Structure formats: C-alpha cells, structure tokens
Amino acid sequence: MNDDRYNEGMKTRRSVLGDAHVDRASQSITEFDADFQRFITEGAWGSVWSRPGLSKRERSIITIALLASLGHYEEVAMHIRATRNTGATPEDISEAMLHVAVYAGVPAANAAIKVIKQTYAELEADNPNE
Hints:
This protein is an all-alpha fold and 130 residues long. α1 (3-17) packs across α2 (19-27), α4 packs across α6 and α6 (90-104) runs antiparallel to α7. 80% of the residues lie in helices and 0% in strands.
C-alpha cells in the first residue's frame, strides 16, 4: 500500500469534490468496497488528478467530457458540482459538449447536457447569490 499516494489522493479529492462529499463517501465505505475506494483514491486522485501537467480546471473539463461520452451521468453531475472548486466554467463545459457531440455522438452530448443543465439549476437554487 502506498500511503503517500493515498494521502495525496485524499488531499486532491477533497480539493476537487469538497470535504462534505468526501466525508459522505468515506462514511459509506464497507469491507466490500474498501479496496476499491483505496484504489480510486490512489489511482485517480493520487496518480492522475495530482499530476502537475494539467490544471484542475483542465482535468475537470476532460473528465466531464469523458464521463458524458461514456454515459456516466451521475458522475457527470458530481463533476459539474466540483467545477465550483476547479474553476471550469459553464462556457468551458458547453464547449466540451460540442466535442462530445462530434467525437462520441449527439445522443451522448444531448443526454449529458440535460444532466448538466439540471445540475447547474440545482447549484443556482442552493446558492442564488453566487
């Protein structure tokens, strides 16, 4: 086990998704998924998201486009909420959805756009002064 990579992953995960989200996710870990949770914390957050080559904003845009392309809409919503921490703007995401439409198909982009619009509306309703 790589505790340094895990700790770096948790730091990055918290900075992107927020403490409240990570705390909720951590509280629901069971023996069944503990190894999986450690794997994604070390791999996705500690190895990829923590790399210096791209900004969190750029990684956020790429991640949302990939998730939309693959039809992982619950994850799209989670990462749209995370844009509050990464700096990716609605304009960035709109541009990314055009790429999704061209390279992954209009239906994938269309479905993701519905989720994205709903998530932005929920964020606005929760924080009308932002």
